[in-house]
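Hi Y.,

Following your request, here is the sequence exactly as I used it, all 359 residues.
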Amino acid sequence: MIFQHTPCNSHTPRPPPHDILCLIHPLPLLRYTLHLIYPLDNVKFASAIVHRSFTVPTNAECLAFFNEQHAKGSGALEGRGKAIRERWPNKADRMAYYDWSTKMADDEMKREMTPISREDLKTMIATMNYNSKIARGKLVTAVERPIVPWLPVGSYQNGGIYRIVPGPHGLQPDQPDPETDRTIISMNVLGVNTNVQPTLPFRSRKANFSEASTKSNESDDSEIAGFVFHQIGTLEYWGDKDENFRSFEDAARGPWLPTGFRVVVRFGRNGAANGIYIIYDFYPEDAWGERGLKITGDYWGRLPQDTSNQQFSIAKLADTITELRFGRTFTLTEVLDYPVEIVRAMKTPEDAIIRVTIA
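Below is the corresponding structure, written out as C-alpha cells. Let me know if you'd prefer a different format.
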C-alpha cells in the first residue's frame, strides 16, 4: 500500500485522536495504536514543539518507515512502539511522525468513504489481476462502501430487465473447510466443478458424473471441468411492467427483486478476467439474513420472467463487464441444466489460484 502525502511538517502537529473507526479499519487502528503507545497531553506536546530546533522527519522518511512497518503485517503491532522510538529517539520527531500518520489515516478514510463511480468499478472488474491479494482487497473495499453504484445488465431475450447489485459475498461452498496444506483463499473467491453433480438438489444424473470430487486433498488446475471466480454481486430483475422502465431515474426508483442468482467474474491462471457468469445460490438467505440448508426440491435455477422457463445452475452472461448496459438484449451461453459443485479456492506455489476438487 503506497501513499503520497504532504510533508510531516506541513501543518501544526497534533496528538492522534481516539477514534472509534480504529476498531474497524486498519489505518485508524494504527493511529489508535500509536496513541496508546505514546499518550501525551496537549500541554506537553505544545511545549515540545515550541522548544525543538531541529529538522523534523520528511514526508519521504515517514512514508518509507510506514511502508516498512506495514509490510510486517498486523502481527507486528505490539513491537511498533519500540520500532518508532528506535527510528526517532527524539520525542518531538516521534510526535511529528504520529501527526503525519494521523493525517494519512484521515485522508485514506475519506477516500474509502467516497463512492466509486460506475465506470471506475466496471474498469476495475474488467482489468484487475485476480491473483493479487491487494487488487482483490481494493475490489472488496469498493463494493462494500456505504454507497455503491449498481450496474445495468440489459434485457434478456426471453424476458426481463436485469441489473447487478455489487457485493463480494453470496455463494457458499458445499464444504467450507476442505483439508489441504495449501493456502485457502477467502470466500470472495470460489471454484465450480462442472463435471460433478451433487446429490442435492436431486436431478437425473449426467452420464459419468460423480456425486462429489474424487481427488481428495488435491487441486485441479484444468479449466476444462470448471473454473475459479470472484463474486461481484447479486442479479436482480425489474419488478414492474417493461413500459414503465424508461430511464435511469426509473431504474433508480425501482422496484427491483432478487432472482436467486449471483454474479461472478471467471478468471484464469494468469489472474485475468475471462467472462461474466451467473450461478444459482443453492444456500439462500432467509428473511433474517441467515443461511439455511441447501435447496432440496425442484424449485431452483429459473429466472422469474423467463418465458422459456429454462432451468439452469450456471450460465455465461457476457465476455466482459463492460458489455453490460440497459438497451442491450443479451443471450445466455455455456448453460448447464444440472446442479454444480461449488468449492473453495487455493493458492499454488506460483501464486496462481485454483479450485479444490474435493467438496
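Helices lie at 26-37, 42-51, 59-70, 80-87, 91-113, 118-127, 133-143, 248-253.

Thanks again,
Q.
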